[in-house]
TrEMBL record:
Source organism (scientific name): Streptomyces rimosus subsp. rimosus
Transmembrane segments: 20-40, 68-90, 134-154, 174-193, 222-239, 285-304
Biased composition range(s): Pro residues: 324-338
UniProt keyword annotations, A-Z: Membrane, Transmembrane, Transmembrane helix
Source organism, top-level taxon: Bacteria
Keyword ATP-binding listed: no
Protein name: Uncharacterized protein
UniProt key word S-adenosyl-L-methionine: no
Region (Disordered) residue spans: 311-338
Amino acid sequence: MRGQGVGHVMGRRRARARGAGGFAVLLCASLALPCAAWIARDVWVAESAADIWWLWAGEPVRPQESPVWATTLLDPLLGLGYLCTAAAVLRRSPSANCALTAMAAATLLFRLPLLRTLGAERLSGQEPGVREGAMVTAGAALLLSVLLLITASAGRDRTGRPPGRLRLGPAAPAALLLGGAGLALAGWQAYWIREMGWPLYRDSVIGNTGVFRALLQPPPNWYLLSLVLLALVSAVGVAQRAVSMRPLGMLTAALLLAHGTARLTAEQRAGLLGRFSALPASRQLDVTTWTFVALAGLVALFALTRPADSARPRGSEAGQMPPGFTPPAPPSKLPPNW
């Protein structure tokens, strides 16, 4: 009877886990679909497909009569992250719940300021209904990300088994590079606070000032501060070799790699890399920072793809007895029909 009860409970847990997994896949698809739709919209209205890349790199070509852009480099990265997370859930990967949590946290972080900027910003040449559609997208993303957090919590493993640890070899350089990139970007934020003054810098973070290139673009300094936060939190978690921090670390590394590469591409188009030695010291430091950020993201992403040490079962699950333990002697008289 006891065995049947345990089996019944385990069956209910598996059924609940399957239900949570299916709902998580649906949420990821619902988050990825608007990203793909807005990217397709920008490709449709662009004069050339190359304009989309320069838009994402930070140098859009926007004639006065063209419609406003909607996407930034963040949108394809988030969309790809949702799809990878859905694939991890379908494969029943041990890191699926951690990936769900990481994507939900990133969505909340990057989409939250849009509710303010879309309501206050003035963009010329906007199409009817485009701003309203962007606001619906941002609001729905926030709601779905909260549901994603709840689903990840419901599907978390509560058996108490050790989750394993990241290997020291890949984890150490990944943590150093993520932390170094975060500190480098934080240093630039401190520089801009001194140059702009706190009131103007604060307004640039919350979106009160500045011209936005796209509707779904968070305020630039909000975005950079978010990268700093993600990089430092990921570095601390990876330094502790926590497997649960690997999805967040991979997401952060991908953001650092993509953003650094885009900035370097824009610098190359402006001709700054070809005359690096003639640039002012501040511009040289800026180019050097983004080169380091891109390389740090690339190396950290590669390091975090390495498999973790498998968890070693405890007690009887391992098939081994604790040190000093002696099994009891067999009974002198065996029961009938033994």
